[in-house]
C-alpha cells in the first residue's frame, strides 16, 4: 500500500514537472525567427538587422514597417503598435527611431538592457535611462550641423535670426525640410518637453518664421509631409538623410544650411573643407549641450517569447565585429567609440565628385579626431524625436507654409491636438 502511494506521488511529481516546464516554455521559447518592428521604412536599417543570422547561422529576421505609405500618419501607426503590445501580439524587437519610449518604459513593456550596456563599455550609451536602468540602445548615431560659406554672416541662434540674417545680405538657404525640422528639434521640441507645452504666441511666431524661411530657400520646393517623421521616407538613409548641401555651398548655389551628418565620409569632407577655409561648420548644441540623434535604436519587447534570442541579436549588433562591418559597408557613424576612433584614424585622402563638384578630402587631423571623440564623450542631449509629436506641430506648419490653411487655423489645429497628446 505504502509502495503504491509513493509510486502515485512520484507520478504526480513527474506530471507537475512536465506541466511546469510546458508553462515556462509558453512564456519563453527558443526560436530561429525574430520579428522586428520599425515605424518608417528604411532599406539600410532593414539590411542591417536582416543580416543577423545568429550563432548557428540559422536565424531569420522578419522586418515589418508601421508607416506603409506617405499618406499614413505616424500617430496612427503608433496606435496600432500599442494595440498589439497590449494584446501580447507585439514584435520581439522594436526600433524606437521616431517613437517616444517613455510610455513603454513606464508601463513595463520594454526589457532592461543594462547588462548589455555594461558588457559593451565602449558604446555611446543612451541618455534616457530610468531608475538606473537602460531600456534601449542605438547601433549608430548622427549629428546636426550648421554650415555656411566662409564669407556669409549667417546667424544660427534661432530660426528668426537665421531668416533675417539671410534676408539682410540677400543670401539663400538650403532645403526647407531639413532646416525647418532641425529648427523644430532645436527650439520647439525642447520647450514642449521642458514646459509640458508651448504658448500660442511662440507657436505662431515659429510658423511665421517657417513661411519666411521658405521664401529665402534657394530650391523651388514645397514643404512636404513625407519628410516629417523620418525626415525622408525615401529608403536607404538609416532613418534620416545625410546632408550633401556642403557641396552646394562650395558651388555658391546656397550660402547657409542646416543638415544631418550620418556617415564618416561626409564628416571627413566637411572637416576638410572647414580646415581649408572653404566653409564654416559647427555641431548643433541644444541648451548649450552637445546633442546627437541615436539611430537604429533597439529595444526588446518585455512580453516577447524570444527575449534570449533578441538580446543576443542586440549584443551582436553592438560588437566590434558588427560595428566595423557597418562602417566598412555603409559608412554610418558607429556607437562603438573604439571602432569610431579607428575609422577616423585610418581615413585616407578621398578624391570624388559631389553633386558635380570635384573635391579631394584630406584625412582627419589628429586635432579633429580628438575633437570628435571629446564630443561623443560629452553628449548631453538626445534628440530622438517623437514622430507623433512632430506631426502634431509640423503638419499644420507644412500646410500653412504651402498656403493651404491660414495661420490661425494652423495654430488652432496644433494646439488642439497637442493638448490631447499631453493629457494622454
Summarize the structure in words.
The protein has 424 residues and is an alpha/beta fold. Helix content is 47%, strand content 16%. α3 (74-86) runs antiparallel to α15, α12 crosses α13 and α15 packs antiparallel against α16. It is globular.
What is the share of helical residues? 40-55%
N-to-C span: 65 Å
Structural class: alpha/beta
Order of helices and strands: HEHEHEHHEHHHHEHEEEHHHEEHEHH
Q: Could you tell me the number of beta strands?
A: 11
In short:
This protein has 424 residues and is an alpha/beta fold. It has helices spanning 2-27, 43-50, 74-86, 102-106, 114-119, 159-168, 176-195, 200-215, 246-251, 264-275, 307-318, 320-330, 337-345, 366-377, 387-401, 407-423; strands at 33-38, 60-65, 93-95, 137-149, 256-261, 279-283, 285-286, 289-300, 350-354, 357-361, 379-382. The protein is 47% helix and 16% strand.
What are the main properties of this structure?
single chain; alpha/beta; nine-stranded mixed sheet; two-stranded antiparallel sheet; 11 strands; 47% helix; disordered N terminus
List the helices and strands and how they pair.
Elements: H1 2-27, E1 33-38, H2 43-50, E2 60-65, H3 74-86, E3 93-95, H4 102-106, H5 114-119, E4 137-149, H6 159-168, H7 176-195, H8 200-215, H9 246-251, E5 256-261, H10 264-275, E6 279-283, E7 285-286, E8 289-300, H11 307-318, H12 320-330, H13 337-345, E9 350-354, E10 357-361, H14 366-377, E11 379-382, H15 387-401, H16 407-423
